[in-house]
Amino acid sequence: MRKLNVIITACILVLFIIHGVFGALLLTGSGSTALKPVAWTAAGLTVVHIVISLKLTFDTLKIQKQTGVSYFKENRLFWARRISGFAVMVLLVFHMTAFGYSKGGFYRLKAFDDIKLITQILFIAALGTHVISNAKPMLISFGIKSLKPRTADILIVLSVLLFCMAAAIVIYYLKWNAF
Predict the structure, then answer these.
(1) Sign of CA dihedral 73, 126, 133, 52
(2) What is the C-alpha separation between 2 and 5, in angstroms, rounded?
(3) Predicted TM-score of the model (pTM)
(4) C-alpha–C-alpha distance, residues 75 and 82, integer Å
(5) Could you report how far apart the first and last alpha carbons of the chain are, in Å?
(6) CB count, 10 Å around CB of 128?
(7) pLDDT digits over 44-61, tens only?
(8) Which helix (H) or strand (E) covers residue 102, if one does?
(9) In this structure, are residues 121 and 172 in contact, taking their beta carbons and an 8 Å threshold?
(10) Using CA atoms, how far apart are residues 60 and 54, in angstroms rounded to an integer?
(11) Are 83 and 125 in contact (CB under 8 A)?
């Protein structure tokens, strides 16, 4: 089940990057699509990832209860991953409802106010925390033994992508509130 979760996670990461790049282009007026099917595929895989992750977390909690020891201090990274994942789940709902809706075959934009800006920036921050804190275990799961040569590259690429996505959201906000 863990291996399946890792494969699903890698697929979500690829789809997230594609959606984020095309979404950033769309928000800044440089693109014409956010590839909605990619986003919905990522959302479906995310639901599967959540279900599997919850099962694995409950299994861990069950073992901790049976043994009577939790080693909370030693497992802070484990809990940071779970908490950031929960934050992503909550903020994903805000993301899915922030920009617009379809009505009568037409896509209608919603006003993009201060609250939406804050929730989208928090969403990107939570995603960044979740992805970066889980990058090492994911690479290990794929059998990549030497992480040092790749760690800095991964962090730089993810940081630049997340920064560009956040910048696009700020630009979109400024466009909405320029009047």
Answers:
(1) positive
(2) 5
(3) 0.85
(4) 11
(5) 52
(6) 20
(7) 999 999 999 999 999 988
(8) strand 100-103
(9) no
(10) 10
(11) no
> Strand, coil or helix: what is 10?
helix
Instruction: Return the structure tokens found at 53.
Output: 């992750």
Question: Do residues 24 and 171 make contact, with C-beta atoms less than 8 angstroms apart?
Answer: no
Name residue, tokens 């282009």. Answer: 25
pLDDT of 78-92, one tens digit each?
889 999 999 999 999
User: Cα 74 to the chain's mean position, in Å?
Assistant: 25
C-beta of residue 5 within 8 angstroms of C-beta of residue 53: yes
H or E stretch covering 14: helix 2-27
Q: Which amino acid, one-letter code, is at 14?
A: V
Nearest to 90 by CA among 45, 115, 123: 123
Cα–Cα distance for residue pair 143/133, rounded to 1 Å: 17
